[in-house]
Amino acid sequence: MPTIRDIAEMAGVATSTVSRALSNPQRVNARTREKIERIAAQLHYVPSTQARGLSSGRTGVIAVLVPDITNPFYFDIIRGTQYQLKASGYTQLLVDTEEATDVELDTLRKLRRSTDGVILAASRLTDQQLTDAASRQPLVTINRATAEAPTVLIDTPGAVVQALEHLASFGHRSVVYAGGPTSSWSNHRRWKAIEEAAAKRGMAATRLGPYAPTAFSGAAAADATLGTGVTAVIAFNDLLAIGMLERFRERGVRVPEDISIVGCDDIFGADFCNPPLTTISSPIEQAGRVAVSMLMAQLDPIRGGTPRKLAVMPTHLKVRASTGPARA
Predict the structure, then answer these.
(1) Which of 96, 122, 239, 263 could join 279 via S-S bond, C-beta 3.0 to 4.6 A?
(2) Has residue 217 got a pLDDT over 60?
(3) Where does the record place the HTH lacI-type domain (predicted)?
(4) 61-154+284-313: CATH homologous superfamily?
(5) pLDDT category of residue 57 using cuts at 50, 70 and 90
(6) What is the DSSP string of 251-310?
């Protein structure tokens, strides 16, 4: 690859002159600048991001950390952050933290000097760990609130209440919550919303789990749910709900005639299930875009505007065929 030294030799000027002409053109006279730019174009010179970062203190890279890159829920978040970062002139670095707190912490430490900021989706860190991380580098969280870092919240608890109202309208008086990982902040928020809403409506609510947020965990969750005798279940996410649907089918349990099931996230494929899954839907891609705009406001307050501490994305219940009247 051509370097500024090559350009300097062809132009008959010092390398420092080439550097100024390409990074601060107003500091070089027009004739010299035009000559340098012409030679740079002929050589197909591409500025070094690392070198530019050393002089500006910026790398042009933003890290996006997700707990499980194979979970379709994060596809739209990743797409949203990618589009918005590209429009802002940044490159996205994607990291799968494997649902592990230690991996997330280690990744944040390693990326501190090689990225300009971080977006944490569904962080598994504690409040103190997040506070410490936010004090060391610009970051924004998605679905993980803390007082020290700006966050984008997807209001799934609000739609969970809609789900309970929907089930109550079908005559259901008992519901199970098939819970997600204990380290998931969203998991606790959803259970609290179910518990409070069920109590107000005179419904019995039971929490089972924790279960990994994957389809493979659906069999265990389905078996445990059937043991309770309830007529309806709300799963932590769509993947778990889809696994439960498959297990119910294997055991000859009809959905929704024998039991109704509600998922969360409205991932790609939720409407292809048999039966199609009733689930909580939200603007996931938009959440990724908003997270980037909030991070940009930290990195460049003049251009990015006043930094926001909180953005809440609305959700709604998308009713499909996996819910119906409670069995007599």
Answers:
(1) 263
(2) yes
(3) 2-56
(4) Response regulator (3.40.50.2300)
(5) low
(6) TT--TTTT-EEEEES--TTGGGSSSPPEEEE--HHHHHHHHHHHHHHHH-HHHH-SPPSE
Domain boundaries, the chain: 4-47, 61-154+284-313, 156-282
Report the DSSP beta bridge partners of residue 62.
92, 117
Write the pLDDT tens digit of every residue in 189-201.
Answer: 999 999 999 999 9
* Residue 85 structure tokens: 């970062």
Instruction: Kindly tell me if the per-residue pLDDT of 318 is higher than 60.
Output: yes
User: Quick one: 155 exposed, middle or buried, by C-beta within 10 A (0-12, 13-18, 19+)?
Assistant: middle
Q: Which CATH architecture has domain 156-282?
A: 3-Layer(aba) Sandwich (3.40)
Euclidean distance between CA atoms 197 and 95, whole angstroms: 36
Strand order in the sheet with 232-235: 204-208, 174-178, 232-235, 260-264, 278-281, 316-318
**Which single residue is written with the structure tokens 């996006």?**
64
What is the distance in angstroms between the CA of the first residue and the CA of the last residue of the chain?
75
Phi, psi angle pair for 59, to nearest 5°: -105, -20
pLDDT at site 54: 46
Output the six-digit token pair for 114. Answer: 């090689």
pLDDT (0 to 100) of residue 287: 96
Q: pTM for the complete prediction?
A: 0.81
242 burial (CB, 10 Å; 0-12 / 13-18 / 19+) is: buried
3-state secondary structure of 138: coil
Name the band, by pLDDT with cuts 50, 70 and 90, for residue 73. very high
